[in-house]
Amino acid sequence: MPSTSTSSKGDDPLAQRLLRTLSATKSRYDGKEEDMAFLVNMVQSNDFQALMGIQQTLALKKQRAVEMAEEDLASPEPVTHDSGPLLSEVCDMIFHSGVRRNSREAKLLTILSSPHFHGVMSAHDRVAKGEYSSSTDWKTLVTATAGEASNAAEVGTDEYDGSPRGTKTVRLLKSGEQPLGATIKIRQSDRAVIIGRVLHGSLAHQSGMLQSGDEVLAINGTTVGGLSIDDVVDLVKAAQDHIDFKLKNVEEDSAVSHAAMECHVTMRTQFDYDPRSDRLNPCREAGLAFRRGELLTVVSQADPRWWQARRMDSSGHLLAGLIPGPLERQRREAIRKKRDSQQRPSSYGSRKLSLSGGRKKSRGYTVTGRDDPDAMIEFASYEEVARMLPKQREPRPLVLIGAAGVGCTEVQEQLVRAHRHLYSRARPTSTMLMRGSTSSQFEQVSARDMLEKIAENRFVEYSRVGNHWYGTTLVSIQRVQRAGRTCVLHVPPKTLRTLRIADIKPFVIFLAPSELERLRAKLQYRDSHSIVRSHRLDDELSAMVEASSKMEKVYGHYFDLRLVHEDVDATVSSIDAAMERVRTEENWVPTEWVRDSDPDDTFIE
Fold this sequence. Notes:
Elements: H1 13-26, H2 33-44, H3 46-73, H4 84-96, H5 104-112, H6 115-128, E1 139-145, E2 167-173, E3 182-187, E4 192-198, H7 203-207, E5 215-219, E6 222-223, H8 229-238, E7 242-248, H9 252-260, E8 262-269, E9 295-300, E10 306-311, E11 321-324, H10 326-343, E12 361-362, E13 382-388, E14 398-401, H11 408-418, E15 423-425, E16 429-430, E17 443-444, H12 447-455, E18 459-465, E19 468-473, H13 474-482, E20 486-490, H14 496-499, E21 507-512, H15 516-528, H16 538-555, E22 561-564, H17 568-584, E23 587-590, H18 591-595
Parallel strand pairs: 14-20, 14-21, 15-20, 16-17, 21-22
Antiparallel strand pairs: 1-2, 2-7, 3-4, 4-5, 5-6, 5-7, 8-9, 8-13, 9-10, 10-11, 12-18, 13-23, 16-19, 18-19
Helix pairs in contact: 1-2, 4-5, 11-17
């Protein structure tokens, strides 16, 4: 029996409260008086008072722990929702402070400029903006795994039901309108229902229990073996609160390989795609439409023919769509070339294309009928890109591309004349003596020196007109960059294949003409309001529009910006605004340009 001695802590508030409660209930208590006396003595005892003190201390500490946890769980306020400008400012400060080769500053600048660090900062911005979704609307329950019945009770599953070894039952609980996100196909050998692919970000993907290649044995208790695809889809649609899949496990190696092929790569599209009109798409409803030049995040390359991707501006929409991978594009390109070669007359390739009044003019290549744009369409699919910080001391060169007669030369001259402090032309090199030109405007070399430099790949573009050579060297472009100005180039479009490299990093603008009818109306207006009539014929306008269209079809995946050129001043203003963004904002460029960037590179004249 516990001690009944009177406590020296009888003034404890909680003890006094208990005593008052006992005294109030004493008149209504019908039991023995010694029982009530026992309770009173126990409350007044030292042992009980000590236990009450411990309980109060624990309760107080628990309350404080909860308060501290709530404070820790409170969302901190981000310093910024867009870390790009801040990162650019930091990199500029490091660069302008005078970076020495192999110094700590140089290594830090390399890290801050890497695509991986930009990925981390992009994730920070998405979290700061709240661009993430919760998967609490869906729950996944593994209700049974045949062959592992001994563990069933531990995970709260049903008892082993005698299913063949290697099967599992997955229950997906639905509380919203999120699609399942899995495609199915019929295996022809035994008419079994197979999960074709699991779309990234979908319910099936978030569950982690459905794998591409799993065999579906039953859905909500109904055996699906031998059913058509439409019948299986109807079973899934008929499900209300949950869907039970009874599956035969995919081979472990296959499941691991699919997981290993998940990625997070930013790609710039180089062609237009509409899944609704693509008869070869295995699931048009799951296809992702896009236009050339859009930025996509590729999240799975498990199927080399059909990648999974979503738009960069998806605004938290995590469900990916199917896009044709490079392997599928190559297959279609081979089919197209074979079809075109069968349709094209055999005499087409021998026809010469005469330029400049019959005098052959080439810019590093021979111009023949084989160079017809329809026959030269390059294989283009996707280009991996990364963010690149602008370098104030080395502005990116500007390359103007356009068909003959559009007005690229006029725009180039006006741009340099109106903004001499920002733009400049590279000093050309030639074997011809240019009368009235100084050495600062033109570099004259011998034919032998010219050919040696061409063999050493010092020219980014060159041409031969008659007996003389002309060209632009990489050093002449870099000289303009080191002066802090943007080098403006007007080159043939075929030069872009060798011009778009990490050493140059050009920004390419394509100047397109207006529509043919608008050009005709403009020409008629000028002729009616001018004493001197234009010498342009309607055929010339048609040829210019057609040549521009073919040029865009062949080389459009190289263009960073497309402008319709109607007025010189308006076009120059648009170009200057675009280049201002290039000089001050982050640019999406080929990943190789970022990987090959070295803050310690030394310019050599």
